[in-house]
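hi! just following up on the protien thing from before. the input was this:
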Amino acid sequence: MIEKPSPEPLSPSLFRDPDCGAHAQPIRVGGGKWTPMVLRCLEDGTPRRFSELRVPLHWITPKVLTETLRSMERDGFLTRTVHDENPPRVEYALTGLGRSLLAPLDTACDWARTHAPEITEARAAYERAGSVA
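and the predicted 3d structure came back as:
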């Protein structure tokens, strides 16, 4: 059996970009706030195991990540492949439909970077107004 080289591991700091991270991205894809991050984890085309996805998504609970992956599978954005091994190995990979979201996601991220100061100020103003009421 020919062994294929191991893919690069996902970095725990994958989402440290303050202008387009989990909290700055004002646009939701596929109905879930974590979907864009899962798309980013799978964008290189390498199928990933749940434990690999947990490395950069460490702040998401396993339950919420599982729900996100199921939702993405239901919507046709990714495939879930169970390998007949002991113990079973499950891998997730983007479908063509999921890959088609990467370009709009890049555009949304660029927009968020450009408008991050405005978003931050609007959120702060909202919080200030809420604390007065």
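The longest helix spans residues 102-132.
The mean pLDDT is 84.
cheers
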